[in-house]
Specification:
Helix 3 runs parallel beside helix 4 and helix 4 runs parallel beside helix 5. The chain has 7 helices and 7 strands, in the order E-H-E-H-E-H-E-H-E-H-E-H-H-E. Helix 1 links the parallel strand 1 and strand 2. It is of the alpha/beta class and about 250 residues long.
């Protein structure tokens, strides 16, 4: 990763080419970070994002990584630990979200969502921990994981594999917060809806309106609102660790 000199803080965001990941990369770049992101199939979008980051006078790069392949994840973490000059922020943003009705649940889909949503973040955190511990940022290094209020006591029917895997991610935050303290802070962001899906569950207007009836602020959030919480936790919340901030317009209390 010779593109990074190490003169500025470096943020590594998985799945940063689109949606909340893209907004998080730009928010961190505006706050002074160089940005590395991963993509699985969205190479064009990742390269376009890198161009936007460079327009902010920050360095940027993207690398292909399939988080469902845990051997590749481990190898990537070890390679980055050797090649990056520093690492100050690690954002576990990439995830898979797919329905898994109880009646048709298979071992393959259960494990596939677990690998991407929980195991891959654990492995990357493990391999990159030494770099994060060495950060000279105020408050030290930071890990931020993208969680979901619907895997924290507000489950959606028909999404068993997703809910289980994201619940494991929430517990990973607690475990990492203990293991990496005091040098590294570990927190999470749990959106309700900050961007509607392009297809499938809640991609239609009727479903969206039903959901919004239970949101006190009466609107969906935006990727930028979620990304601002990521930025704050990563760079400014220097006395916060082991916490999950819900960005849900009040949906949790209804």
């Amino acid at each position: 990763m010779s593109v990074f000199s190490g003169d500025r803080p470096i943020a590594f965001v998985t799945g940063g080419a689109k949606r909340v990941g893209r907004a998080s990369c730009l928010a961190l770049a505006r706050a002074g970070c160089d940005v590395l992101t991963t993509y699985r199939s969205s190479e064009d979008e990742a390269m376009a994002l890198a161009g936007e980051v460079r327009e902010l006078d920050r360095e940027a790069d993207g690398c292909a990584l399939d988080l469902d392949d845990l051997d590749s994840v481990t190898d990537a973490g070890e390679r980055l630990a050797r090649e990056l000059p520093r690492l100050d922020v690690l954002v576990h943003n990439a995830s898979v979200y797919a329905p898994s009705p109880l009646e048709k649940l298979s071992a393959d889909e259960l494990l596939a969502q677990y690998r991407v949503n929980a195991a891959a973040p654990a492995l990357l955190s493990s391999r990159l921990a030494p770099l994060l511990r060495a950060s000279d940022r105020p408050g030290g290094g930071a890990v931020v994981a993208m969680c979901d209020i619907h895997a924290m006591g507000r489950p959606r029917a028909g999404h068993l594999a997703y809910a289980m895997s994201k619940a494991a991610l929430v517990e990973l935050i607690n475990v990492l917060a203990l293991n990496l303290a005091p040098e590294v802070r570990v927190n999470g962001v749990a959106p309700g809806v900050v961007e509607w899906p392009d297809e499938g569950y809640e991609s239609d207007e009727a479903s969206q309106q039903r959901y919004l009836k239970r949101v006190p602020l009466d609107r969906p959030g935006t990727p930028e609102e979620a990304a601002e919480t990521v930025r704050w936790l990563a760079l400014d919340a220097t006395y916060l660790t082991g916490q999950v901030v819900r960005v849900d317009g009040g949906r949790w209390i209804t």
